[in-house]
Automatic annotation (TrEMBL):
The lineage of its organism: Bacteria, Bacillati, Actinomycetota, Actinomycetes, Propionibacteriales. This is Glucosamine-6-phosphate deaminase. Belongs to the glucosamine/galactosamine-6-phosphate isomerase family. NagB subfamily. GO terms for biological process: carbohydrate metabolic process; glucosamine catabolic process; N-acetylglucosamine catabolic process; N-acetylneuraminate catabolic process. Residues 8-230 form the Glucosamine/galactosamine-6-phosphate isomerase domain. Its EC number is 3.5.99.6. Keywords: Carbohydrate metabolism, Hydrolase. It is an enzyme of class 3 (hydrolase). Pathway: Amino-sugar metabolism; N-acetylneuraminate degradation; D-fructose 6-phosphate from N-acetylneuraminate: step 5/5. The gene is nagB. It comes from the Bacteria. NCBIfam families: nagB, PRK00443.1-4.
Length: 270
């Protein structure tokens, strides 16, 4: 894994967006078709999406015809609820990035057949040729997507029960904890690991313990994000606060600072 420690949230967003943009250009060149992206929700990737939007506006990125798959969705929120991930993705990804809504896939949290919905979602990813670059965040308990601690490292898209800590962390988006759903549909860890490239963003001291366990702890279902240690092409972009529990933080800073200029992402494909 390549770990980049940025000075602040704005720099996290800029660097992560440069990495995602580079992956999109590489995918288009390699496969000859528009890229397929995996989209995370929550607050962590919002700056990244804003940076991608700016790249589209200045002509340094082209996502015409691109497809996308959301990581997860709550079960039971009514259609059109502002905190359903279908709506969040529409507001923060599909419309700002000018994507065709027909090519942006979000799990149906109101399906009468959740297992069938998950199976069809997996097949849609296969039919699209797989995900070229998957954007992820990390929960304070180490989850990615809604793969809570204890999730199988080989899991596929499925229904899950949300951990109480996750519900409390997400309460800020709702009027009360009682309004936060208790169940969800989520891409599995095995599904996420199938992506050709993964870019993670994390910010703040509340993520520091999870980041340390992910990067420096053993690969274990007790920290689902630790499975990323097994992926061949992962970039972790974090701020100083999120890096504050890393014993190897200075090493990662030096590794990035001492890279030859031609290897810097903002010097590539521009």
């Amino acid at each position: 894994m390549e770990v980049v420690i940025a000075a602040n949230a704005a720099e996290v967003a800029r660097l992560a967006a440069l990495r995602v943009a580079r992956a999109c250009r590489s995918a288009t060149t390699r496969r000859g078709i528009p890229p397929v992206l995996g989209f995370a929700t929550g607050s962590s990737p919002l700056g990244l999406y804003a940076e991608l939007t700016a790249m589209l506006e200045d002509g340094s990125l082209d996502l015409a015809g691109a497809a996308g798959f959301a990581l997860d969705e709550y079960i039971g929120l009514p259609k059109g609820h502002p905190e359903s991930y279908a709506e969040v993705i529409r507001r923060t990804v599909t419309e700002p990035l000018g994507l065709d809504p027909a090519y942006v896939h979000v799990l149906d949290g109101n399906s009468d057949d959740p297992l069938g919905t998950c199976a069809r979602f997996e097949q849609a990813i296969i039919d699209a040729g797989g995900v070229d670059v998957q954007i992820v965040g990390i929960g304070a308990n180490g989850h990615i997507g809604f793969n809570e601690p204890g999730s199988s490292l080989a899991s596929r898209t499925r229904p899950m029960t949300l951990a109480e800590r996750t519900r409390k962390d997400n309460q800020r988006f709702f009027d009360s904890l009682d309004e936060v759903p208790t169940q969800c549909l989520t891409q599995g860890l095995g599904t996420i690991m199938d992506a050709r490239e993964i870019v993670m963003v994390a910010k703040g001291t509340n993520k520091a313990e999870a980041v340390a366990k992910m990067l420096e702890g053993p690969v274990s279902s007790s920290c689902p994000a630790s499975v990323l240690q097994l992926h061949p092409n992962v970039t972790i972009v974090i701020d100083d606060d999120a890096a504050s529990r890393l014993s190897t933080a200075e090493h990662h800073r030096m590794a990035w600072t001492n890279k030859p200029e031609w290897m810097r992402w903002d010097r590539l494909n521009h």
